[in-house]
Amino acid sequence: MTAPDVTITDLTVTFRRGEVRALDGISLRLPVGMVGLLGPNGAGKTTFMRVLTGVLLPSSGSVAVDGTELTSRGRRQEVRATTGYLPQELGLYPDLTARQFLDYMALLKGITDRRARRARVEEVLELVSLGDVAHRKVKGYSGGMKRRVGIAQAILNDPRLLIVDEPTVGLDPEERLRFRALLARLAGDRTVLLSTHIVDDVVQTCPNVVVIERGRVAFQGAVGDLATRAEGMVWHLTQPATAPPPGLPTVNVTPGSTGTTYRVISPTSPAPDAERVSATVEDGYIALMHGTAPERTQPGPDLRVG
């Protein structure tokens, strides 16, 4: 499988006869491998993913996978055949076994040859480490195992573009690590777009990140570069008060024997005893969301680095 080329050009989506602009002129070229998608609730991430999966037609602009336009109604089915999607809430059939569920999903994806379908189902079960328990009903699975069934159905058609929405929410730390490792293995020569509110998931798995806010791209580039958006503006402030300092974005709160230490974002020192510390990716994201990060010039829509 050759590397996919996913190009988004001036993508705009409006609702209510143009009164609500969910996406506002997004232009990107997604690289092969893991790409994080960050943004607050209501930023437009879900709309963006719905367009990429061919569920929603944009109001204007274009999305193309290997030159095939998703915005062409007649070609959307062709693109869907090369796209996999794991929504945040996937409706599983609890009384089916994992093997039965995946066989059914494979039929829906057009894998009609019985022998080929069975072979593909067994292949993806092994890929997500469920082969030994595939005979068990889904209702008896843990949350992490159900997510792995979800990713298995998303890759049945061996997609070139795989989109996953909040896949680690509610998982325990061990399951989160296992799922992140699975996504990294699946990336290979395909593009995997990971939408999440958990910044650490992006830091640990994604070389590149896109931040969407109010329907626009607020940041695009290497994930490490996001930290630089808060460089020189991150402070540790220890005080006896139990409430965070007013008016300052607070990244973290750590209670201690001498008081509570707040990790805050501020262009200038928030107090005489405040200690400046190095910025992390999460600091950069918080600074960006609160409008305290400096403007950054962006050299074009191509996310590819290195």
TrEMBL record:
* Residue ranges occupied by any ABC transporter domain in the UniProt entry: 6-239
Q: Which GO terms describe its molecular function?
A: ATP binding; ATP hydrolysis activity
What the entry lists under Pfam families is as follows: ABC_tran (PF00005)
**Which CDD domains does the record associate with it?**
ABC_drug_resistance_like
Regarding protein family, the annotation reads:
Belongs to the ABC transporter superfamily.
What is the official name of this protein in its record? ABC transporter ATP-binding protein
Query: What are the protein's UniProt keywords?
Result: ATP-binding, Nucleotide-binding, Transport
Q: Which organism is it from?
A: Streptomyces sp. Y1
InterPro entries registered for this protein in UniProt:
AAA+_ATPase, ABC_transporter-like_ATP-bd, ABC_transporter-like_CS, P-loop_NTPase
- Transport: present as a keyword of the record? yes
